[in-house]
Specification:
single chain; alpha/beta; Arc Repressor Mutant, subunit A; 5-stranded parallel sheet; 11 helices; 5 strands; 10% strand
């Protein structure tokens, strides 16, 4: 089992960052750590010449909502293991974290030994989840499913294309480039998507779209266009 040479901790709570650093150094004495207090700061660090083995990411960061930070880092650095370290221990959140490409989830309430064990699992190439984690039960009811399909069908073909790209983790400027439209137009489409799906953030819109056969709905819309 290889020890991580460098770990990036993305969290804006100094006391918790310090606790993570102590846990890492205790388990891996030769490991170096860096800190970033926001996604933008993390992107700057990751764009430098330093190579990191693992990123420990808090979901609740300034200027970030929901899973947006995870999706953005995952898109920019697809091969870098990202472990979410969060106080939000709801099984549905853990399930979504893994669905969006995280290498694991560690609760902020975990002790040093649990944090060390999680890092070891990731360095061994495995996924890491809290002890006793059980995936949340089941799919939405047929009535809720049908309602979601109907809401998605109110989106225009262009809005469905924007939503598809949101699911891929693309940023507004990337979507604008792909669709050859202005970024302000993308923002307008996103606002309409949120309104029509009755959600408050792009992350929630992505989660809703994950619940059904989204591509089938897109295909039906393309046929109507």
């Amino acid at each position: 089992m290889a020890a991580p040479a460098r770990v990036l901790i993305v969290d804006d709570h100094p006391l918790f960052v310090e606790a993570l650093q102590r846990a890492i150094v205790s388990a891996f004495p030769g490991t170096a750590t860096r800190e970033a207090i926001s996604i933008e700061a993390a992107k700057t660090v990751l764009d430098s010449k330093e190579l990191f083995d693992i990123v420990l990411l808090d979901l609740a960061l300034p200027g970030t909502r929901g899973f947006d930070g995870l999706l953005e880092l995952r898109k920019l650095h697809p091969s870098l293991p990202i472990v979410v370290v969060s106080a939000l221990e709801d099984p549905r959140i853990i399930q979504d974290v893994m669905r969006y490409g995280a290498s694991g989830f560690v609760a902020k309430s975990a002790d040093r030994s649990e944090i060390a064990a999680a890092l070891k699992e990731v360095m061994d190439g495995s996924l890491t989840l809290p002890k006793g984690y059980k995936p949340p039960e089941a799919p939405p009811s047929s009535e809720a499913h049908g309602d979601l399909v109907q809401r998605l069908k109110t989106l225009t073909p262009k809005q469905l294309s924007v939503l598809r790209m949101l699911r891929q983790g693309l940023l507004n400027k990337q979507i604008a480039h792909e669709l050859q439209i202005e970024e302000t137009t993308v923002k307008a489409h996103v606002s309409e998507i949120l309104r029509k799906l009755n959600v408050s953030s792009r992350t929630q819109a992505v989660i809703e779209a994950q619940k059904i056969d989204f591509e089938a709905v897109v295909g039906e819309s393309d046929d109507r266009a």
